[in-house]
Amino acid sequence: QAKRWGKGGYAVFDQQMHLRAVKRLHLEIELRQAIELKEFLLYYQPIVSLSTGYLTGFEALIRWQHPKKGLISPVEFIPIAEETGLIVPMGKWITQQACRQLKLWQEQYNLKNPLQISVNLSSKQLRNSHLIEEIDEILAQTGIDPSSLKLEITESMLMENVDIAMNILIELRKRNIELCLDDFGTGYSSLSYLHRFPVTTVKIDRSFVMQMQPGNSNAEIVHAIITLAHSLEMTVTAEGVETQLQLQQLQWLECEQAQGYFFSKPLPPKEAGTLIQAFPCWK
Ligand code: C2E
Ligand code: MG
Ligand code: MG
Ligand code: MG
Questions:
Q1: Nearest CA to 150 among 37, 234, 247?
Q2: Segment 184-211, tens digit of pLDDT
Q3: How much distance in Å is there from the Cα of 201 to the middle of ligand 2?
Q4: What is the ipTM, given to two decimal places?
Q5: Where is each EAL domain found (predicted)?
Q6: If you write DSSP's letter for every residue of 55-82 in order, what string do you get?
């Protein structure tokens, strides 16, 4: 089949592959420089309690402030950071920065109800044998309560290396660090199976939340996830909440927390701080 395309076909294919490889290599070089030049920053998206309407915390989401290309989304560079292993030092910086920011806010606004900070981990970090040490160090340095830190992991990260993941999660839970199963519903494993891992929260993927209409199949799926999570004594956060109707449905289903553009987009630190002040009863 391929032979019929003739030599030209191969040449075009080779050229495209070559271009992609060059682009990728270039991005990798830029990524290494960006770490040196400290071009990364964290944005913060609020997470809200659906029973009280109070702000309960933020998810830290990385951005790359590129000198020429502007603000670059993590979807563009996290996969390359993972492949190259750069995610390990980056991830340490992310956790450090997020915990520092939380400490600053707690002091600045004299928070009696300590907010939580959620940090995304990647699978390479979970396989880094120094992860626990690093997190202990960060907690000691910043002085935040371990229960104020919530680490987000995906089911594929757990399934990639069941034993290692299990041991690390147990260590994290011993410290009272919260664990959240991110993007839930997009993988293939059942919640009953995942319950073996000591996760405390399930975060329903936004693809289900966004397509939820009263009575449709997505609403049924969300309902089922919430019911099962509750029976397994896990709390539920819904991501990607954009409308009042979605919010009302989630409240009716007794989902604990929500996050999404309906409340706010991810914000730079200063604006997130302003939002802490604006939310009801944050003290
Ligand atoms: P995620 O952890 O599932 O984060 C949620 C993503 O959904 C964020 O995209 C957020 O901006 C977006 N989002 C939240 N609410 C809404 C909404 O109402 N509508 C829509 N359309 N989108 C919403 P973002 O910031 O582009 O991050 C994408 C992914 O990149 C994250 O998905 C996470 O997997 C990864 N990522 C981001 N920051 C980090 C990080 O610091 N470390 C690691 N390892 N991964 C990160
Ligand atoms: Mg997340
Ligand atoms: Mg998510
Ligand atoms: Mg997601």
A1: 234
A2: 988 877 888 888 899 999 999 999 999 9
A3: 12
A4: 0.98
A5: 24-280
A6: EEEEEEEEEEEETTTEEE-HHHHHHHHH
